[in-house]
Amino acid sequence: MVFDPHKPVIAQSDHTILLEVDNPSFKEARDRLALFAELVKSPEHIHTYRVTPLSIWNAAAAGATREEIFGTLEEFSKYDVPSNLLVDIEDYLSRYGKLLLEKSGEDLVLRCSDSNLADQLRLNKKISPFLLQEKRKNTFRIDPSNRGELKQRLVKIGFPVKDIAGYVDGDTFRFEMRETTLEGRPFGLRYYQEQSAAAFHQGGRAEGGSGVIVLPCGAGKTVVGITAMDLLQTKTLILATNVVALRQWRDEILDKTTVSEDDIAEYSGESKKFAPITIATYQIITYRKDKEGPFPHFGLFNAQNWGLIIYDEVHLLPAPVFRVTAEIQSRRRLGLTATLVREDGLEEDVFSLIGPKRYDVPWKELEQKGWIATAQCHELRIPLHPKVRLDYAASENRTKFRIASENPNKMKVIEDLLEKHQEDRVLIIGQYLEQVREISQKLKSPLITGQTPNARRVELFEAFRTGEIKFLVVSKVANFAIDLPDANVAIQVSGTFGSRQEEAQRLGRILRPKASGKRAEFYTVVTRDTVEQEFATKRQLFLTEQGYSYEISDCRDLFPDFVPPAYSS
Fold first, then answer.
1. Which end of the chain is more exposed for a tag (fewer CB within 10 A), N or C?
2. Which domains does the chain have, with CATH numbers?
3. Nearest alpha carbon to residue 193 among 225, 169, 149
4. 61 and 206 in contact (C-beta within 8 Å)?
5. Could you give the strand order of the β-sheet that contains 162-163, starting from the edge strand earlier in sequence?
6. Contact between 525 and 409 (Cβ < 8 Å)
7. Are the CB atoms for 222 and 235 separated by under 8 Å?
8. CA 135, chain centre distance (Å)
């Protein structure tokens, strides 16, 4: 076995790849590994990557070759690369491109690379109904309306389709990017924003036009979307998580481009208008009168001749929207997200229906360059309040989680943290409405929940931005796009069963760079020795994977005078 201690990589037979951060070749190796392996963990000294079928198919979609991938592993590996890893990579890589969706005259066809694969598809009961007729050897005519669903089914049997059938251009809509914002500040693209949009556009070729950009909250994903719009100069439909996010998109477009207010329309529960740029909410798209009824607003996707559809926070894309997205594969599609982790496990559907990951950059890299705020993460553990101990002991796990999450002892920790951060802008975030309402009442603080009217939300967010109010209590609406650039402290009092996706969004609320240069502080208050502590471990994993330091303390370590009722005689 060959061994070179100076190289930074250890490739392992379980498809994981370890990368030494302190090695002089770290940055070059990192950049090259990112092309074909998924970053799993990135703490201080050793980063862990994993090779998966999806990571290789993403690489293939970006043009990576066998020689490139093997060359990277061989160039940077301390030991011989395991032969089974090389064989599996070659197999995954070869599968991408064996099936091509393309145009043949006026027809949409699926072309197979060989007869064996064509026979396999003919005999597969989930695939054969989509194969209308064999136009020529190993080439089947496909109904264009089935373009998306066929891609979904093929990726599930391990054969991702390379879709080069192209897109409709959409109606032309011209505008220019500003060099200065409406307030007169210089505006230009950051390097990664320009690279992201270019990776999606692919110079206008059929290989581009669909895909996902992965950037941290606060890194300017909206600007990437606007840049893609600028490259295409076409009518655009933007889907946002809520009305507040919708209006933030509108404000950013007006601030960064020559688009006029009359050329932007809102399609939500409050207004249903169309314009060359129409911004809708996922909520209105998925509205229906009853669980078995139709989705009356699905027609929005074909209501105009859109040349581009942008899915903001694509990791939160409601499952029903995949259904309609499968039907509009002829329109260009851009997904924006801070994390491709989906709690429903639909990452393959994002790949097949929105498109492959086109660009990704580690959170810590942007932090080091000053594009997002430096963050410190803390977990503060407290005892369970005596008055709920018996209820906790007698309950099922789901109820135990809620009892622990709503532990009355958390109120004292919140008060002490607010005392410590009197000069900061603080978000107090909770999952349960009764809990956040009680916190709001005791602190005499404004509260924002899903039931708060949008006009009131905007009013409170503005008061927070200007410093008129120093802290806000917010429910799980904090999981969605909220632009609060001055927030630099978050206190998380309860969450959703250790959701990594939620942790990314909540941390993102305080990651925008601060004019003051202050560090962002992210606190999670957890009830010790309960199921809540077990779930907190899952959330902690996401933060350490992103390279953030995560301190676990007893609340009395941070506040020596802390004496909650649980400690009282």
1. C
2. 9-95 (no CATH), 99-163 (3.30.70), 191-361 (3.40.50.300), 368-567 (3.40.50.300)
3. 225
4. no
5. 133-136, 139-142, 107-112, 99-104, 162-163
6. no
7. no
8. 40
Q: Phi first, then psi: give them for residue 443, nearest 5 degrees.
A: -90, -10
What amino acid is encoded at 69 in this protein? I
277 within 8 A of 265, measured Cβ to Cβ: yes
Which two three-digit tokens encode residue 463? 């008061």
Q: What is the pLDDT of residues 416-451, one digit of tens each?
A: 999 999 988 898 999 899 999 999 999 999 999 888
Tell me the pairing of strands 236-240 and 489-492.
unpaired
Instruction: Give the contacts of 119 (CB within 8 A, at least 6 positions apart).
Output: none
Q: Is 79 exposed, middle or buried (0-12, 13-18, 19+ CB in 10 A)?
A: middle
Q: Residue 547 has what pLDDT?
A: 62
Identify any residues that bridge with 266 across adjacent strands, giving them in sequence order. Answer: 279
CB 478 within 8 A of CB 454: no
**What single-letter amino acid sits at 326?**
A
pTM of the model: 0.79
175 burial via Cβ count (<10 Å: 0-12, 13-18, 19+): middle
- Local structure of 440: helix, strand or coil: helix
Nearest to 409 by CA among 393, 429, 385: 385
CA angle 41, 364, 248 (to 5 degrees): 115
